[in-house]
Specification:
mainly alpha, 0% strand, 5 helices, 114 residues, c-terminal domain of poly(a) binding protein
Length: 114
């Protein structure tokens, strides 16, 4: 008896992967093994990048808060410590937005904390 292979599904799987590799340079776009590796690596970078994006934004917010707090004679760590002690529950994203777009509101928060 002949060996049964599901060539329809195999072709569909390869076709789907090759479609993902569209726009790649050189053999990465048209050679199966090379494109498969390139696409899988791309997915890995995309997954990692989604995690790094959160870290990068948090560090950006911290830098913005630090710069704004120093304008009012306070370091970032002092400001965040006093913020917690005063039981003001504003997250870093909101504080950074206040510092950048609404400096008078940020100044009011600093005055409340002091």
């Amino acid at each position: 008896m002949a060996r049964s292979v599901n060539s329809v599904a195999s072709r569909a799987k390869r076709k789907k992967m090759m479609k993902e590799a569209k726009g790649y340079f050189g053999r990465r776009k048209n050679v199966w093994t090379v494109s498969k590796n390139a696409v899988e690596k791309g997915w890995l970078y995309a997954y990692t990048g989604r995690k790094q994006k959160k870290r990068n934004f948090r560090s950006l917010w911290i830098q913005r808060i630090n710069a704004a707090a120093r304008e009012h004679g306070m370091s970032y760590s002092q400001f965040m410590g006093k913020l917690a002690k005063a039981e003001i529950q504003l997250n870093r994203k909101v504080l950074a937005d206040l510092a950048l777009n609404h400096p008078e509101a940020f100044k009011a928060v600093v005055e409340k904390v002091k």
